[in-house]
Amino acid sequence: MTSVRLGIVGLGTVGCGTLSILRDNASLLAQRTGCDIRVSTAAVRDLSRPRTCDTQGIRLVNTPLSVATAADVDVVVELMGGTGLAVDVVRTAIEAGKHVITANKALLAEHGNELLALAEAKGVMVAFEASVAGGIPVIKALKEGMAGNAINWVAGIINGTCNYMLTEMAKPGNDFAPVLKEAQRLGYAEAEPSFDIDGIDASHKLAILASVAFGVPLSRQGMLIEGITMVTADDIAWADDLGYKIKSLGIARRREAGIELRVQSALVPKSKLLANVDDVMNAVMVNGNAVGTTLYSGAGAGGLPTGSAVVADIVDVCIAMRTGQVLRPALGIAMKDLSPLPILPSSEIQTAYYLRLSVTDAPGVLAKISAVLAHEGISIEEMRQQPDSARSAAALVLLTNVVKEAAFMNALTQLSALTDLKSPVAWLRVEHLA
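and the corresponding structure tokens:
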């Protein structure tokens, strides 16, 4: 039986989840791989800190770079996160001729092109199933199960914090601030939550999904990145009345001139499967030209779910090492063959829109709004109106047809200048996912 020695860098939640799976399923993994998989060493930040997993027989060090060059390590499993020391660890491991497995989406999104090109030059593998959507095997689905398809679009709920918050805000009496506080208490949101609620985390994951789906270099340059801070309980209630749910989505869509890449809050029809994925769960829909639309859903975070994805990569690498086979390139296509398709500017986005306006309750106001929209080639698909007699105002809620964002933004500028407005215009995109 082939011996494969692992070096794990980081024994936090995911590291301990990975180690637990390797121990609990050791016999099964040996049967599936034909390998004796053993963790020889692990790097931790604090050697004296109690661990939540069994580290018996593992050499613990507090020098991550030493794992990347250790003589008794064949495969480096990078689970420390971040784009500082983690980059040095991965680069050093590759240069030392070691295969690498990582769950680090920021590392890949920001340094992946360089590191994957280096790996190809050195003849080693870099696997990263756990970097997107935790335990959901969407990277393998795109590279392997969907290999016979040209991918048209990918859309997903890829941040559990935002999905939890939007789910809770749909309950009566809940608004953004108290829901965020509860998410922090439960450990779903960090004390400084901007990485999640401003869309940064999801943007890293979307860059990876788009690269694998479309065979383009990893990049966030030009990506539209918005969070959930603009969503209110009023918007969620109106969306419900119109037959929609509001979800935080990462969307990658192929257009003739390039690729749309956007992280955004959007209205999704309740009839769509993605609209019914709630709480901290993740889900990714993929549309291929042969298979149509497929959905992958499950736990997007946590030690065991994410560890499951890490171990799946370990299995692939071990089988490749035992058989001498060469796995397909990390992105499904060799780095030199990636397409230079550009990321389209946000002005070229094509989607429908939701508008909520509080206006003076007087004759002719709706006509003014309609005229502004018509001037930009925007038609009203659906409208709701609710009088507010206490303020001599009315709430107008509109859904538009699909238009280019440039036209909508021109209309929004004109609507915002109307003297009949009682408060700023609220708006969101509408995604029918077709």
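(Above: one complete record from the training split.) The chain has three domains: 2-135+303-335, 138-299, 348-430.
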